[in-house]
Design a protein that fits this description.
This protein is an alpha/beta fold and about 325 residues long. The protein folds into 2 domains: about 5-105 and about 295-315, NAD(P)-binding Rossmann-like Domain (Rossmann fold), CATH 3.40.50; about 105-285, Rossmann fold (3-Layer(aba) Sandwich), CATH 3.40.50. It has 12 helices and 12 strands. The longest helix has 19 residues, at about 295-315.
Length: about 325
Amino acid sequence: MPDSVHIVYYNSYASEEVYNMISEVMPPGMQLLTLERDDEKHRLEKISSAHVAIVAATPLTRRIIDAAKRLELVHHQGVGYQDTVDTEALKQRGIPLALTPEGTTTPVAEMAILLMLAVYRRLPYADAELRRGRWHINALRPVSRNLNGRMIGYIAMGRIGQATAALARAFGATGIYYDTAPVLSPQEATALNLQAASFDEVIEQADIVTLHIPPSPEVRYMIGKDVLARMKPGAILINTARGMLVDEYALFEALRSGHLSGAGLDVFETEPPRPDNPLLTLPNVVLTPHISGGTRDAFQTKMKAIFENIHRFYSGQPLKNPVSM
């Protein structure tokens, strides 16, 4: 193989359709290396010849990094690298890590709104019951709500929070948001029908609390028993960020007691969730398998951005969206 060809390894096991989507946007001068099965031994073998590794949900551990003797660059498919990349192992090898914010904003914002609507209308439950021949034309009226007129509380107001607020405004919802630093100018907040607030104000006043904060040890279980108890009776919780933000057992208790009326979760502390996770038993919880950013459109946008950044790297240009380690 010519030295000018860079071998790009994809660390997640996926279908041929997904691999083809990557190949469709891969430029000349690169070769895609994919997995035929989902096990660590196979990953150790495959990555040994790679120059670049693309990381998605499957963690790039120290053991896998150590097996990658030719590795020169790691590119995360998204931005939440903290629980999927061993940055200390990369730092010791001097291997840079770059992120891919491109493509994620729109699908995750749409998913947050989708979960709000699905929870408020008990959509999975209504669908499942209809398929069983049960016609609940009136039974759900007492628990269904409109998104119009609700107050949404946003925890963090970055790209995805702002995109979600823009969509929510079209439904006639108002909003308050908490962030650790000023994010929006008064004019920007007005345009999104938002007001800045304290964390406590968001938790205590919002009809819907939606999480858009990056993971870190400092925010683990930030939504715990005490915070859930202070949420507005009948409120709902939406999490499209990371599962580690929420104490799942405390959330289960808040839902079972009726203090909260529902929740929409695309992420879990353990993924996939264990079969005995009590949240799986509740009809007022909408659960999806970490698919918020997983549309075809978003995936190909991400892959194009990744390959453009790889090209920059090998052309001697500064990487876009590097991680400081």
